[in-house]
Amino acid sequence: MFILPSLQALKIFECASRHDSFTQAADELGISQSAVSQHINNLEIRVGFKVFNRESKCIILTPSGRALLTSVTVNLHHIQQTIEIERRKKHSNELVISTPPGFAIRWLFPRLLAFNQAFEHIKVTVNTVSDPLNFNLYHANVGLFYGEKDIEYVKSEALFEEHLFPVCSPDFMHQHNLQPPLNLKALKKLMTLPLLGEESTQHNRDTWRDWAQSQNLSFSNKQPLRQSLSNITLQLAELGHGVAMGRTSLVMDALSRGQLVALTRAEIDNPCHYHVVHNPMMPISDSLATFITWLQEEVKAISVAAPN
Q: Is the dihedral angle over the CA atoms 73, 78, 81, 87 positive or is it negative?
C-alpha cells in the first residue's frame, strides 16, 4: 500500500524547511500561513511521524524530517531535470545558456541581438549565475565557465585567449594626470592610487597581483578594493572610483565607446579561460551547434583586441 504524500504537500514541506518558517513559505507559494500549516499536519498524518518541532517563533526539522527533506530535495530536482530534458527534445530550437554575470552583461548580451536576427527560429535564454555548471539547478544546455586554463571539463572546449591590463575612466585619468601609455615611473604611481579588484569563488587568481609581478611592481599599503562580480568592479571604474584590472572581453566595448581608457600597453596573458561546457544530460541539437559555431566566430575578435 502506497503512503506517498501528494507532490503539493512535499513541495510545501521543502519550502517551509528552506525558510524555517510557515509564514515565509506561505509568502513564496502565494497561499495562507494556515494552509501551509494544514498541509504539514496532513503530511505528518500521512507519513506517520513528525517532520517539524514547533517552537514559539520558528519551526525545527526533526531527525525524521531531515531525512525526508534530503530525499524530497534530491527527487524533486531529479523530476524537474527529467521534465526539462524530455521537454527540450520536443523543443530543440530552445536553448538555455548559463554564464557568469560579467561576461553576459558586458559581452554576450550586446551581441545576442545579431544572433536573434540571423537565426529567428532559435530562442535563446541566458541564465546569469555565479555557478554556470550547476546543471541540476539551472538545466542549461551549456555553461560558459570562467576558470583556470589547466582545468579540464568533460565535453568542453576553451573559447578564446585574452589579456589583462589596467583601465580607468577618462575623468579619473585626467584627475590624476595619467598620460597613457604610462612609463615605469607612472606605473609605480599607479600602484598608490585606488585599485579595484574582484573576488571569485570559481578560481584562485589575483589578477592585480599577477599583472604587478610581471612588471616588477609592488602594492602600496592599500590592497585593491574587491567586489564579488567583475562587472561591478568595471562599473565602479567607469564611474571614476579607481583603476580596475581589465580583461579584454569585458572592457573592449567600453574602450571603443570611450568609457574606459587603457593606461598601458604592458599586458599579460590571462591565466584563465572561458570554457563552453556541455550539460552531459542534454542532447546537442542543431540549434545548439549553430549557437556554438556563431559564438566561436564572434569571440575571435577578443583574441586580436589589444589596449590602444
A: negative
